[in-house]
Design goal:
By secondary structure, the protein is mainly α. The protein has helices spanning 3-8, 10-62, 65-81, 96-101, 110-133, 136-140, 143-194. It has seven helices and no strands.
Length: 200
């Protein structure tokens, strides 16, 4: 068989066609994976941005531990001075974005999903105690029991502020340095919490 016959043979044509086809599959597969990763990364950034904004907004409303403690002490003083005084507790909804995105939460990395879920668990606990504080049973309680429940309510808000601060730090660290950046921030936070100066 001459070289001309080999080049003209159907076998060579089939091998060349198969080679080009295989190359196309490999190339397209790589392109598809690259595009899928880009879309996944974009969704992750958007999810983090939305959650960050929602948490930051509520934390701004809370004002911090000192502000919450001062408000608590003021309200409790009024309750103790006038046993008929029942504070007005407004309804709250601070998880609308999270609820809208919760079905896609698996897109988040573990280093940010844990603090986000812990924070929103605290927000849910606040919503539940608010229902109790707005009910007739709360109004019918003695002042000592009402004060104790109000203390619990503010304690939940203080914990939500701390959990939110932690979640924001982790989201920001992930945005800046990826998984390694978030792990480094997690280690810094653990060190801060274990230091003698940490607030208990």
């Amino acid at each position: 068989m001459t070289w001309e016959e080999i080049f003209n043979s159907r076998l060579l044509q089939a091998v060349l066609a198969g080679g080009f086809l295989a190359f196309g599959w490999v190339y397209n597969g790589r392109q598809n994976r690259r595009e899928a990763k880009r879309l996944r990364d974009e969704k992750l950034r958007d999810f983090h941005r939305a959650i960050y904004a929602e948490i930051a907004s509520y934390m701004e409303t809370l004002g911090g531990r000192e502000a919450l403690e001062a408000y608590r002490d003021d309200v409790i003083a009024k309750m103790e001075a006038d046993e008929s005084y029942v504070p007005l507790i407004p309804r709250e909804r601070n998880d609308e974005i999270f609820r809208a995105l919760v079905a896609k939460i698996s897109i988040l990395p573990r280093v940010t999903i844990d603090p986000i879920v812990i924070y929103y668990g605290q927000v849910t606990a606040i919503e539940e105690i608010i229902q109790d504080l707005r009910g007739e049973r709360f109004r019918a309680l003695g002042v000592e029991r009402r004060v104790a429940m109000y203390r619990d309510y503010i304690s939940l808000k203080i914990q939500a502020f701390e959990d939110g601060h932690y979640a924001l730090r982790m989201i920001a660290a992930f945005a800046e340095g990826g998984r390694d950046g978030a792990l480094a921030e997690e280690a810094r936070i653990a060190k801060e919490l274990s230091s003698p100066d940490a607030v208990s």
